[in-house]
Amino acid sequence: MSKLKTLITEGAGSIRPTEVEDYMNVGGYNGLKKAVTMTPEEIIGEVKKSQLLGRGGAAYPAGKKWEHLLHIDIFPKYIVCNADEGEPGTFKDKLLMGKLPLRVIEGITIAGYVFGAKAGYIYVRGEYRKIQRVLKEAIMHAKGAGFLGKNILGRGFDFDIHVISGAGAYVCGENSALLNSTEGKVGRPRIKPPHLAEVGLFLQPTLVNNVESFASIPAIVEGGGSTYCEYGTPDSGGTKLVCLSGHVNNRSTYEVPLGLTLRELIYDPELGNGIPNGKRLKFFHLGGQSGPIGGPDQLDTPYTYKGLSSNGLSVGSGAVVVMNEDVSILEYLKGVTEFFLHESCGKCVPCREGNKQIYKILCRLATPGAPEPDDLNMLRRLVDTMISASFCGLGQSAAVALNTAWKIFKDEFEINAKPQALGHAAA
Amino acid sequence: MSHIPDPNKSVNLTIDGIPVTVPEGTSILEAARKVNVKIPVLCHHPDLQVRAVCRLCVVECDGGKKLKAACANDVWEGVNVVTDNARLRGIRRMILEMILAEHPQDCLACIRNQTCELQELAHQFGIYRPGFPVEARHFDIVVDTDTLVRDMSKCVKCGRCVTMCQEVQTVRAINTSSRSVDYEITTPYDKPLIEGLCVYCGQCSSVCPVGAIYENDQTDKVFEALGDKERHVVVQTAPAVRVAIGEEFGMPHGSVTTGKMVTALKRLGFDKVFDTDFSADVTIMEEGHEFLDRLNNKGRLPMITSCSPGWINFVEVFYPDLLPHLSTCKSPQQMFGALAKSYYPSAYGVDPAKVTVVSIMPCTAKKFESERPEMNSSGYRDVDVVLTTRELARMIKIAGIDFPNLPESEYDNIMGQSTGAAAIFGTSGGVMEAALRTVYEVVTGEELDSVDFEDVRGHQGIKKSSVMVGGTEVKIMVANGLKNARRVMNSIRRGECDAHFIEIMSCPGGCVGGGGQPYATSETKRKRMEALYRVDRDMPIRKSHKNPEVQALYEKYLGEPLGEKSHKLLHTHYSTQGKHHWYVPHVTTSKRR
Amino acid sequence: MQQAPMTEGQVLKIMEKYNNDPQQLIAVLLDIQEASGSNYVDEKWAALAARVLDVPLSKIYDILTFYAMFSTKPRGEYVIEICRSTPCHFTEAEEVVSWFEKVLGIKMGETTLDKKFTLSRTCCVGACDVGPVAKIGDEVYGDLTLEKVNTLVRSYREGLPSFREALACQN
Q1: Which of A187, B47, B202, B430 has the most Cβ atoms closer than 10 angstroms to its Cβ?
Q2: Closest C-alpha to C128, from A94, B299, B547, A306
Q3: Which residue of chain A is at minimal alpha-carbon distance from C86?
Q4: pLDDT tops 50 at residue A388
Q5: What's the rounded Cα separation, in Å, for the pair A194 and B434?
Q6: Is the pLDDT reported for residue B581 higher than 90?
Q7: Of B574, B507, B589, the residue nearest B372 (C-alpha)
Q8: Residue pLDDT, tens place only, B229-284
Q9: Do B188 and C65 touch (CB under 8 A)?
Q10: Contact (CB<8Å) C56/B176
Q11: In CATH, what number does B10-84 get?
């Protein structure tokens, strides 16, 4: 039996993306049609049963998030779709929005119905200009077909969706920064508390979910939460879009049931199909630049939220970047740190200054004779400070790759460090 | 569920094991201070919105690994907070080391040496050698129109100045820009302040924890004038200076140090020590009559006071259409200068060309005001050098004067006598109260039963009241802080303001909270305010029109309020073009050594 | 062929398209940049937007310097952005940079003398399945080879859209 699933990717590439008729031929809008016959509580009940965990990277239980927002008695409420797919190695939301935009729109519309919202926003990263046009066209068609706009499905429910463009800032993937940017402001994260469910877009209660999470909603509503959940494991329900890139033969996006092993993802002929040129895998980087790095020893870990986290790994965005034996871990981490050095919003000290100092130390550690005696000790302290004291998730996760890789490739880290530096680090 | 904290409910918690009960809505930081635990902060300022960006104040809650910023999180019932342990010390030290790695290490040659909050923290954490190789950034030092200096190499990016400029003053001249290591505080396109919206209120400088934004120190110019035998140097002191300068010498906040300050100025060698309070009384004579004139002759109302130069800049930049509402009176500082170069020389037989007028002001905008080209109606510059309270304190320290233990002296005459009405010019509501005392008696010819107008006193941003003057009800408003001023101006623009007379001061609290005052929080500003009302209460004369020296001035020199001489010397005009078009900017930049 | 400089009328029209809504500031600025012909937002237009949308210039400047897609200085008509994120970087993105440098005769970060091309780096554009990639305007080009780079530059220089359409990624 194929390991690939088409629970939420049914029709991707085979139908005309923005045509409602085509979409309906692959089961489109069955979810919304059923949803409008249910109460919000019933729908949320199904979402809870589905065990759907936020597909953007934070893995927060969607049902819990929805239930929390439902109990807030302040209106209007807003629905926001986080389509600021910026984690390097991640290109699954692009697939959904480009090839099945109506499924995303349907999911957002169901959320609009649940919360009695009048407006939804899809915040699409600025680099996806073409996708933005596809979404706008799909929205127009959905309105034409009565699935969006005034009096949806004749149920007296009005809901509209706006497409908002980012302009090149990874940090806008952080939900509060994303809301600032949606409001036309600079995209630096907000102070929390208050929680976005209470004080979100335009200071109103707001639901923010990832593209893939919204795209999963129609299937959950149509087939029921339990059926969806059964695709995956009891604690990690459903399917997940996984993006394989780097040194792997079949670089692409795959919809897989949660529960395959990393080895299957990378080596199965139907999936990654192994490492090119007969090379060996040195490490893999999960969930984008903010995620952990794992080594060959961890390949048999099941790709589920729980399975990975109990092995010090995580699903994150669904990115799996594979690197072969030729890659220097320090060079790779320099690349990761350079990314955060470019993308830090700059407002808090640990993230702004920490990335800079980490980069400098990594450069020294990668050069024979360059390291300062205290470098490893300082690096340790920098990593701890960034992870525990940064303002937002970006800073808190910027050193995760380094922290996890250090454990696996201790020798490579320390090869150029002077003997006295080793003494310090051990202390 | 969204929850609004109820300050009447109390919350029990422990801080480092010490039980404490505080009202709901109290931050962990404030709760800790209640039990004498001082959690370190750099970006936090009690008068400003929380930014939570320095991360120094992170604490552990209920043993959790995830840290919380004590400034940004309210306490909750039963929480056990740990504010100090090896982990937290390590993190705080690392944060400081990171900041220091790019901070210039020239503390000895910094204006904030010993008043720098970063220096204090580095000392507190025992950082005696840099953790990282120091690679300080080097930006040019920009001196803007002799008023404010920006040395952005020193900036720690705490953002206090931005909150002040954007949220409190709503001037929006400076903001954050760029990101990551390029993140900085700047004007749009890195232009000098003069080319942007800055009104020179200097509130940014009053909250800067380090030496990144500060007043342009002109003490050298004053020392030079004092050393010049040819110059006849007179000094005036603004009302709010006397209740603040003692803080610079460790005296209790709210100390009234008028007599000591006069002694110090005499010892510094000023030929005459005069009082801006004298010209404040003159201002009341002119402004009070101007108001009555507008009221009786259908002039433009509401009339708005014009004492605060940051406020004048604000109107010129943001509300040029409403300029006719401003009183044409010069500020007390400029009135004093004009009289010190005309009335005083004629009375004392001094050559006005040889007179140097120095002002001691709580204010940075006063420096800018003194440079306005039209401020020369006597034929000479009204005011030659303006020093802030902080700069005068510096002069006193340089001269080795033991300020707290000085004996007291009196101001010199003929421009040194003043009233309680003038003293309260230094606080929000004071100009209005002083004006009412005079206007009432001028109109009715009767003595006021009580000279205290409590409605206009206090710290609130906008105060409203009305007073029966003769048969007319005069509606008055008082606003302090430019955000509140903006609200008032918008209501005038919309035609929704029914006030007749409005007092506006650009700084929160009025001049007691001026941008040139010793570094302080609103708690201290309140004490200064109270001190000024004590000065007023204890004065033998409390109404401007009863000031004998002012009466003499009109008798011997000016004739009458709003007369020809007054008009020439004491009144001014405003530009609808804003400062950019008439003011010749001079900006000097110098390389850091 | 260089575009004529933008007029105030054009900029006002862009803002009208968004109902002069300050919440649409980022979209407005992106459109101004696109219409500029030189891939940047001139200070003059930023100041105009500040006035019309009633947003402080200091906030607009923050936005223009915060978001990577904006430039406050003129760039080439086409900005060629090479992804430098790790999935691309370790699949020979540096080689792609050197090809473009060779074909264009400029170094990374520079603009060609005819103001046609600027070569710059970018973070992940979400096309790691076809890395190394270059993004030019809205188009992303993947699986690059020296030959493809040559063809691409020629098609942009000589205005032959059919060439590049064939090379562009689907989404």
Answers
A1: B430
A2: A94
A3: A335
A4: yes
A5: 45
A6: no
A7: B574
A8: 999 999 999 999 999 999 999 999 999 999 999 999 999 999 999 999 999 999 99
A9: no
A10: no
A11: 3.10.20.740
B230 catalytic? Reply is no
Chain A positions in Cβ-Cβ contact with residue B127 (cut-off 8 Å): none
Examine residue C163 and state whether it is found in any structural domain, yes or no. yes
Query: Is residue B331 within 8 Å of residue B305, measured between CB atoms?
Result: no
Q: Nearest Cβ partner of A181 from C26, C123, C128?
A: C26
Q: Which residues of B touch C62 (CB under 8 A)?
A: 175-177
| Binding partners of C (≥3 Cβ pairs within 8 A) | A, B
Under CATH, what is the fold of the domain A239-324? Ubiquitin-like (UB roll) (3.10.20)
Report the distance separating Cα B371 and Cα B587, nearest Å.
13
Q: What is the CATH number of domain A329-426?
A: 1.20.1440.230
How far, in Å, CA of A90 to CA of A94, rounded? 9
Closest-approach residue (CA) in chain A for C139: A130
Is there a catalytic annotation at residue B208?
no
What are the pLDDT digits (tens) for A108-151?
999 999 999 999 999 999 999 999 999 999 999 999 999 999 99
- Note whether B327 and B206 are within 8 A (CB): no
Contacts of A309 (CB under 8 A, 6+ apart): none
Cβ contact B240:B188 at 8 Å: no
B314 vs B201: CA distance, rounded Å: 9
Distance, CA of C160 to chain centre = 19
Q: By the 8 A CB rule, do A186 and A174 touch?
A: no
Which of the residues B206, B327, B370, B544 is marked catalytic?
B327
d(CA A226, CA A218): 13
Q: Is the model's pLDDT at B307 over the cut of 60? A: yes
C141 lies in the same domain as C100: yes
Q: What is the pLDDT of residue B593?
A: 58
Q: Which of B399, B515, B537, B364 is nearest to B457 (CA)?
A: B537
Residues A143 and A160: their CA atoms lie apart, in Å, by 8
CA distances from C50 to A187, B164, B186, C21, C63 (A): 18, 20, 17, 11, 12
Are the beta carbons of B41 and B54 closer than 8 angstroms? yes
Q: What pLDDT digit, counting tens, does each position of A22-47 carry?
A: 999 999 999 999 999 999 999 999 99
Q: Which amino acid is at B9?
A: K
B55 and A199 within 8 Å at the Cβ level: the answer is no
Report pLDDT digits (tens) over A77-104. Answer: 999 999 999 999 999 999 999 999 999 9
Question: What pLDDT band is residue B144 in, cutting at 50, 70 and 90?
Answer: confident
Q: Token pair of A262, please?
A: 């990393």
Domain locations in chain A? Answer: 20-231, 239-324, 329-426
d(CA A134, CA B449): 77
How do the domains of chain B map onto residue ranges? 10-84, 219-570
User: What dotted CATH number matches A20-231?
Assistant: 3.40.50.11540
Look at residue A423 and tell me whether its pLDDT is greater than 80.
no
Q: Are A213 and A66 in contact (CB under 8 A)?
A: no
Instruction: Please check whether residue B439 touches A, CB under 8 A.
Output: no
Asked if A50 and A225 touch (Cβ cutoff 8 Å), the reply is yes
Q: Same structural domain for residues C47 and C92?
A: no
Q: Which residue has the tokens 């007028």?
A: B357
The pTM for the full model equals 0.95
Is the pLDDT confidence value at B199 over 90? yes
In this structure, what token pair is assigned to residue B496? 């929704």
**Whole-angstrom distance, CA of residue A287 vs CA of residue A400:** 11
Does the annotation count B71 as an active-site position?
no
The beta-strand segments (E) located in C2-70 are none
A347 vs B183: CB contact, 8 Å cut-off? Answer: yes
Supply the range of the domain harboring residue C145.
Answer: 78-167
The fold of B219-570 is: Rossmann fold (3.40.50)
> What 3-state class would DSSP assign to A150?
strand
Is A350's CB within 8 Å of B95's CB?
yes
